[in-house]
Amino acid sequence: MKLSEINVGDELPPLSVPLDRSDLVRYAGASGDFNPIHWNERFAKEVGLPDVIAHGMLTMALAGRLVSSWTGDPGAIVRYGVRFTRPVVVPDDGSGAVVELGGKVAKINDDGTIKVNITAKSADQGVLGGASATVRIPA
């Protein structure tokens, strides 16, 4: 892919990522974040959550994967940011949750970088707000 082949409004290929409790356990081990809201249903409900929730940074990483898969190079991402607006609830029901990710080219900047707006949903609700990445694609 070259910069000259990209236009404002182009959509990134969508990404659908299933998550179950075992994914949360693996992420906890990799990140060192063993907060019980990510693995203990009783505790999660005691603190007011509907069930165990995915790590926010895991959700953010999945959205980053959408962009790096599109560019073909994680190093092409020069800026990336999100706001966590709603947790991804991961029930222990054999199905878990699915995070649906999409992106659209919002702007091609004067310096040749590209702004991509990202959407992330789970259970038909947005889970990230203001998510965007700036990428540099070879001319």
Short structural summary:
The chain is an alpha+beta fold and 139 residues long. It has helices at 21-31, 41-46, 56-71; strands at residues 15-19, 77-84, 97-108, 113-122, 125-126, 128-136. Strands 1, 2, 3, 4, 5 and 6 form a six-stranded antiparallel beta sheet that branches.
Describe the protein.
The chain has 139 residues and is of the alpha+beta class. The chain is built from three helices and six strands; from the N terminus they run βαααβββββ. It has helices spanning 21-31, 41-46, 56-71, and strands at residues 15-19, 77-84, 97-108, 113-122, 125-126, 128-136. Strands 1, 2, 3, 4, 5 and 6 form a six-stranded antiparallel β-sheet that branches. The longest helix has 16 residues, at 56-71. The mean pLDDT is 97.
Overall morphology: elongated
Strand content: 25-35%
Structural class by SSE content: alpha+beta
Mean pLDDT: 97
Let me know the number of strands. Answer: 6
Rg estimate, integer Å: 16 Å
Q: Spans with pLDDT under 50 lasting ≥5 residues?
A: none
Amino-to-carboxy terminus distance: 9 Å
Instruction: Tell me the major beta sheet.
Output: 6 strands, antiparallel
Order of helices and strands: EHHHEEEEE
Instruction: Give the fraction of residues assigned to helices.
Output: 10-25%
Give the number of helices. Answer: 3
Distinctive features:
139 residues; alpha+beta
Layout: helices, strands, pairs:
Layout: E1 15-19, H1 21-31, H2 41-46, H3 56-71, E2 77-84, E3 97-108, E4 113-122, E5 125-126, E6 128-136
Antiparallel strand pairs: 1-3, 2-6, 3-4, 4-5, 4-6
